[in-house]
Amino acid sequence: MIEIYRDHDFSKVGLYQGILEDAGIETLLRNRNSVTMTTSVPIPSMYPNICVHTPEDASRARELLAVYAESASSVVAADWECALCGEGNEGNFTECWSCLADCPERGVNDED
Ligand SMILES: [Zn+2]
User: Fold this and answer.
1) Do 58 and 102 sit in the same domain of this protein?
2) Please, which residues have CB less than 5 A from ligand 1, an ion?
3) Which domain holds residue 18?
4) Residue 110 Cα, ligand 1 centroid: separation in angstroms?
5) For residue 112, what is the domain's CATH number?
6) What predicted TM-score, i.e. pTM, was given to this entire model?
7) 89 and 68 in one domain?
8) Which region holds residue 83: left if phi is over 0, alpha if psi is between -120 and 50, else beta?
9) Which long-range contacts link 78-86 to residues 24+ away (Cβ below 8 Å)?
């Protein structure tokens, strides 16, 4: 069993699983119900995640998700981390949800 994707957001995990299933890759969803069971502190090891059976499927799946993420990022910006308070923000946020700092320039200093 090879894990290829993990996220606390089950809707995202389900979406990615759908992409892989559409491509004919057999997937297995683990920790599907962990979000509803986890009330307060999120435990990354219990996040829902997608697994595949073979290394061949894994590399193909990662490729598919990378292509998908790339095409999605042209529409939806990537998640970003606030430079002031360090909180993580969704890509569609234009300012930090925590301290209201403006979103920094994105995609400019990738080489740094
Ligand atoms: Zn902040």
Assistant:
1) no
2) 82, 84-85, 87, 96, 98-99, 101
3) 2-73
4) 20
5) 2.30.30
6) 0.58
7) no
8) alpha
9) 78/106, 80/104, 80/106
